[in-house]
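Example 9 (inverse folding). The structure is encoded as follows.
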């Protein structure tokens, strides 16, 4: 790999870490963790999901998810309901207020990140967009080869 490509990889790592920390800080201001947001998004996408299914989808331990669900219940964001056909199973549901709050978080994060890149010139932004699209295409190609199916393309 050339020096330029090695630098590109390192810069991508640094940007990823920096944006991740930035997002964590914004979430901390709103008193919510990244794992809690991930769980809320899963609940929003599939009402009535179980803790076991959340664990499979997120890769988090069931005990960790249970602790986060408890915190979200205390906030009034999540409610548990016993499955009507199997009373041993608990189904999880996201309250409407939580969905609205998540949308506000998304907007806040987007505005903060927009402020970070606001000083980049239009030409530099276009160059970055093109380069990032090429990286996404390379990732899609790898996913396609790994999965044996068409990768998702972003335009």
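The amino acid assigned to each position is listed next.
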């Amino acid at each position: 790999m050339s020096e330029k490509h090695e630098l590109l990889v390192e810069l991508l790592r640094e940007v990823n870490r920096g944006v991740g920390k930035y997002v964590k800080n914004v979430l901390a201001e709103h008193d919510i963790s990244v794992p809690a947001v991930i769980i809320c998004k899963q609940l929003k996408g599939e009402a009535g999901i179980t803790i076991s299914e959340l664990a499979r989808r997120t890769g988090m331990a069931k005990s960790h998810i249970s602790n986060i669900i408890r915190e979200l219940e205390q906030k009034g964001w999540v409610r548990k309901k016993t499955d009507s056909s199997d009373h041993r199973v608990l189904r999880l549901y996201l309250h409407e207020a939580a969905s609205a709050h998540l949308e506000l978080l998304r907007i806040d994060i987007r505005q903060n990140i927009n402020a970070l890149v606001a000083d980049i010139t239009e030409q530099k932004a276009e160059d970055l967009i093109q380069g990032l699209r090429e990286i996404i295409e390379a990732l899609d190609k790898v996913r396609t080869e790994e999965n044996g199916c068409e990768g998702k393309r972003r335009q």
